[in-house]
Design brief:
Low-confidence stretches: 150-161, 355-365
Strand order of the largest sheet: 1-8-7-3-4-5-6-2
Number of helices: 23
CATH superfamily of the largest domain: Phosphoenolpyruvate-binding domains
CATH architecture of the largest domain: Alpha-Beta Barrel
Mean pLDDT: 86
Distance between the termini: 46 Å
Largest sheet: 8 strands, mixed
Helix content: 40-55%
CATH class of the largest domain: Alpha Beta
Strand content: 5-15%
Oligomer: single chain
Length: 591
């Protein structure tokens, strides 16, 4: 039966494929594909974990006190029976053999299938037996976790994932986990929770795959291997669509691919407006390996290197100075002399570490993590770590043009501490005769306090970069990862637009470089308006660059500047701007 649901569209395009459910509700489970030559070893891991659990259950049964209820022994017998049930063990092996899932993922996937089957049983007693399945699965997962395993790197997962395209379905996916799926077989994803600018959505856009978040019931209604259509333009998710609907969306897919190919031809065309104004289009990257894609997309530099992803999925062990240096140098060298802006670690809120500090402060224990110990606040609370990262960045500057960008700056005492830490890092390198070049120091403007304190920032920083995602979140008091208030997250709000315009104006007046690196930079609905505000530098995901460039090429900067004041003063700036932009334009584009 075909089912249709809706969520928030966060990455454009259409994805069609079979559903792969990732169960994130029980325990944290690693999900990755195993290389063909390591499959037998992965099956051995699973067999060893099963034997370990069997020994545990046997010991528990043997050590039961004489006065223990007989039901306890019977329950342990049921768990042992389930553990060795061929229907379960054969299915687990098939997940590994056929899909190349790692052992943990195989356990999670098969548990999900069985729990669904038990939920549909009419007999209440049998329905309740799903708890036994879940308890055995959790024991297996704990045993696998105790064994430990090194994540294999899979270069070409599509070679063994089957011919059908796959789409990912989950309650939620952590940003670090999303990066594990980067370059994998998944052609789209849908989650129950999330907002348009949650970091999970941002990573999906960086992967350039269709995505829908906040679909509420998706992970409950979708079954393993269901055919799904994910419409990243409208937010629709169709489960087991009819052949006619399937063909209609496949036609849309082909049209979208043709449009992308057409836009791709613009990648080496300079981004210049109709009246000759040069606009700098930079790339946002998460890992050094993203740099070649930025060059291929026509980026003239990296405007935002999110270093926090180097710190995630490490079991609490932070990367040391040398490891960071190698990563930064790799990105700098890959950009072949173009500038690279490296942001210091932005940990916290929806990007927690396994270990938030030396005191093991966990982000989920904070009452409001978005307002807590995150970004520069965390870095300054860990001064040794912060100076270590600054030294690594400075060392990388010897291999190309590097800028340092600091997130969530708000207070003068923070500014002074940042400058002091950078000077100490420089002095340390000088004392040890380690080469580095001069780096520009910049601040992220993403809290209203920073936007309102531009004169102070301009005294200490060489440039500013507007992080619109958080700026909107803090200005409107909206948790951007919470789908229940996602409808209130409004980049068109007059206060937001006025604040951005004022920051751009203040930076330009001070003769300082200003860019926008938030999601507004890659949204073509705002391209002309940002140019009208005087912005000449935008940083976005490489996948968004061609469409933004096309919009720049069709823009008359003088004309849109004249239209800006009335739009900013309107009660509904979006409607006013749209009306102004669709009015008569004396110039036309040949692009």
């Amino acid at each position: 039966m075909s089912i249709q649901m809706f969520g928030l569209p966060v990455s454009r395009g259409v994805a069609i494929g079979r559903a792969v459910l990732v169960d994130s509700s029980r325990v944290d489970v690693a999900h990755y594909f195993v290389e063909p030559e390591r499959l037998s070893g992965e099956i051995d891991r699973l067999r060893q974990a099963r034997n370990t659990v069997a020994e545990e259950l046997g010991t528990l049964k043997r050590d039961l006190p004489a006065e223990a209820p007989s039901e306890l022994a019977a329950l342990l017998d049921v768990h042992l029976m389930l553990l060795h049930d061929p229907m379960i063990t054969d299915a687990l092996r098939q997940w590994i053999d056929v899909r190349h899932y790692n052992a943990e993922w195989a356990v999670s996937a098969q548990t999900e299938v069985l729990v669904r089957q038990f939920d549909e049983m009419d007999d209440p007693y049998l329905r309740e037996r799903k708890a036994d399945i879940e308890q055995v699965a959790e024991r297996l997962l704990r045993a696998l976790a105790r064994e430990g395993n090194t994540l294999p790197v899979v270069a070409h997962p599509r070679d063994f994932a089957g011919e059908d395209p796959l789409v990912l379905v989950a309650n939620d996916i952590a940003p670090a986990d999303m990066l594990q799926f980067k370059g994998s077989v998944f052609t789209g994803f849908v989650t129950d929770v999330g907002g348009r600018t949650s970091h999970t959505a941002i990573v999906a856009r960086s992967m350039d795959i269709p995505a829908v978040v906040g679909a509420r019931e998706a992970s409950r209604l979708v079954r393993q291997d269901d055919w799904l259509i994910i419409d990243g333009d409208t937010g629709a998710v169709l489960i087991n669509p009819s052949p006619i609907v399937l063909e209609e969306y496949r036609f849309r897919q082909r049209q979208s691919e043709l449009e992308r190919a057409r836009l791709h031809r613009l990648r080496h065309t300079p981004a210049v407006t109709l009246d000759g104004v040069q606009v700098e289009l930079l790339a946002n990257i998460e890992l050094p390996g993203d740099a070649p894609a930025a060059l291929e997309a026509g980026a003239v530099g990296v405007g935002l290197f999110r270093t926090e992803f180097l710190f995630m999925n490490r079991g609490g062990d932070l990367p040391d100075e040398d490891e960071q240096f190698e990563a930064y140098r790799s990105a700098v060298e890959a950009m072949k002399g173009l500038p690279v802006t490296i942001r210091t670690v932005d940990i916290g809120a929806d990007k927690p570490l396994d270990r938030m500090s030396v005191n093991e402060l966990r982000h989920e224990h904070a009452l409001n993590p978005a307002l807590g110990l995150r970004a520069i606040r965390w870095s300054l609370s860990e001064p040794a770590m912060f100076r270590q990262q600054l030294r690594a960045i400075l060392r990388a500057s010897a291999y190309g043009k590097v800028r340092v960008l600091v997130p969530m700056v708000a207070h003068r005492r923070e500014v002074l501490a940042i400058v002091d830490a950078l000077n100490r890092a420089k002095q340390h390198l000088q004392d040890h005769a380690v080469p580095f070049n001069n780096v520009e120091l910049g601040a992220m403007v993403e809290v209203p306090a920073a936007a309102l304190a531009m004169p102070m920032l301009m005294q200490h920083f060489d440039f500013v970069s507007i992080g619109t995602n958080d700026l909107i979140q803090y200005t409107l008091a909206i948790d951007r990862a919470d789908e229940s208030v996602a409808h209130l997250y409004d980049p068109w709000h007059p206060a937001v637009l006025t604040m951005i315009a004022n920051v751009i104006s203040a930076a330009n007046s001070a003769g300082k470089h200003v860019s926008v690196c938030g999601e507004m930079a890659g949204d073509t609905a705002f391209t002309e308006m940002l140019v009208a505000m005087g912005l000449r530098s935008l940083s976005m995901h490489p996948s968004q660059m061609a469409s933004v460039k096309q919009r720049v090429l069709r823009t008359d900067s003088q004309r849109v500047a004249r239209l800006l004041p009335s739009a900013l003063q309107a009660e509904d700036p979006a409607q006013a701007w749209q009306a102004a932009m669709t009015g008569p334009n004396p110039k036309s584009s040949t692009h």
